[in-house]
Structure formats: structure tokens, C-alpha cells
Design brief:
The protein is mainly α. 47% of the residues lie in helices and 3% in strands. A two-stranded antiparallel sheet has the order 1-2.
Length: 144
Amino acid sequence: MLNGNRKKILMLCCLACIIAVATISFKPIQPEPKKLKNIKVFPATATYREVDHAMDQFKVDLGVKCNYCHAPSKENPKKLDMASDANPKKDISRDMMRMTAEMNKKYIATIPHADSVKVQLITCNTCHRGATKPFGTAITQQAK
């Protein structure tokens, strides 16, 4: 029969083994990445984080909040339905994204030595500068 000290040591060893096996075999559950819905301009490989970062930049470049382009949810008007196309400004934004991508590809990328020097890409901020109307819109309309 085991004496008291040996019994305690054996119990502690068993407990340590159980804890070690449990921590090795049970990996923490990673949350599933958020699914993107109704993505029409971003590449199919775009992650939630990449799209969210771009949206944050759009907010800064246009001086707006998410509800400028995204419609309220039908179930809960206090929340936004990011996938909805109910707000026409969302399609305008998509057209603007296509336009800047085309200008960067067609013009900026063809600048000699663009690959070896830092060339500023065209972004929303190039024209909007923190405002919903592009810079110079009032001047252009006055000239008409």
C-alpha cells in the first residue's frame, strides 16, 4: 500500500498529465471569418478585413459614415444591411471604384519608372478631399 506522500505525488502527476493532454488536444476554436455578401467590385479573394479597411478609408475620403452608402436593415432599422442595394449611392460608389481602378491602370501605371519611384495612386481623396462632392464641382458647374 502507498504511503500518504507517495499517494499525493502520484495524484499530482496524474492531474498534471490530464491537464497536459487536455491543453494539447483541445485547440481554441477560431471564430469563422465573416462572410462577404453582394461584393461586386472587390476581388472574389478579398477578405472581410480588407474590405472593412477600404470602407474605413472611403469614410475618411468622403467625410461620411457607413449609412451614407448602406441602407438600414428591414428587420432592425437601427442596424445597416451591408449587402442591400437599396441605397443608390452604393452603386455610385461602385462606379467610382471602377473609375479609379481604370485610371490607375490606364494612366498611373504607364508613367515611366512608376515601378521604381513612389507614384501617388488615384483614390477617392484625390477629388473628394473629405467631402461628398468632388473638389471643384462648384467651379465646374459655375462655368456652364
